[in-house]
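User: Sequence recovery, please. Input:
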């Protein structure tokens, strides 16, 4: 039997297939999920250096939510941190969960030259006209982000976060704090601020959306706060979340 870590992992992955099959929703096949898991591990060998139990818990979490985890689709990511592996739902993953439950959720960023206004209260209203005559890059900075949700049994709702609120959410993230202090090599707030800005107000809409969406948001929020969490599907079909705090003070080991 080969001692190659990737070969050992692939053999273990095959043995996990029946467990994946028991929890996967109909729209995602075992074959597709395992391909995305293998793709993720092949690109990031550090996943094989982490605690193996946490790797399989992270993979099972992806299966419970029915989200791919190759990182390319934006549905979810397998992230090694402090010797553990965490599944983190991505922006597209949250949108997929809502869509599969009959809801349409969207996140947008507002740039400095856009026409944008909103109001809450008894007659809420939101208007956003992106300025297509200006570049939407660094010279036209993000000044706000918002998320909308609607469905057949849900009147349209929205949440707006202006730039100071987005920066405050970033500052409270344990991962961001560890990145800024040099204890982590990268962080999505740094590598893809726009995606994080789109996703952050989506979290605030969770209470309007199905329970599986709320649980995915909880997993993502726990990871932001330095808690390694995983989900499991209970016999009655509900989703249970368990987690333990991860010490970020020693860096990304």
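Assistant: Recovered sequence (253 residues):
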């Amino acid at each position: 039997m080969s001692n190659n870590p990737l070969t050992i992992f692939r053999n273990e992955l095959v043995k996990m297939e029946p467990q994946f099959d028991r929890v996967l929703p109909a729209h995602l096949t075992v074959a597709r999920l395992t391909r995305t898991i293998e793709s993720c591990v092949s690109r990031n060998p550090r996943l094989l250096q982490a605690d193996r139990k946490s790797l399989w818990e992270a993979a099972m979490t992806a299966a419970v939510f029915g989200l791919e985890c190759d990182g390319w689709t934006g549905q979810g990511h397998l992230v090694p941190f402090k010797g553990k592996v965490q599944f983190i739902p991505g922006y597209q993953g949250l949108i997929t969960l809502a869509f599969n439950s009959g809801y349409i959720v969207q996140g947008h960023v507002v740039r400095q030259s856009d026409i944008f206004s909103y109001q809450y209260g008894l007659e809420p209203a939101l208007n956003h006209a992106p300025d297509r005559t200006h570049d939407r890059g660094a010279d036209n900075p993000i000044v706000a982000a918002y998320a909308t949700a609607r469905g057949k049994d849900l009147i349209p709702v929205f949440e707006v976060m202006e730039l100071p609120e987005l920066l405050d959410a970033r500052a409270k993230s344990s991962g961001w704090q560890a990145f800024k202090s040099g204890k982590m090599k990268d962080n999505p707030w740094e590598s893809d601020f726009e995606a994080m800005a789109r996703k952050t107000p989506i979290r605030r809409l969770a209470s309007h959306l199905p329970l599986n969406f709320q649980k995915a948001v909880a997993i993502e929020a726990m990871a932001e706060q330095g808690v390694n969490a995983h989900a499991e599907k209970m016999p009655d079909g509900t989703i249970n979340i368990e987690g333990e705090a991860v010490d970020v003070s020693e860096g990304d080991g």
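Strands lie at 76-81, 84-89, 103-111, 115-119, 125-129, 142-151, 154-162, 227-233, 239-245.
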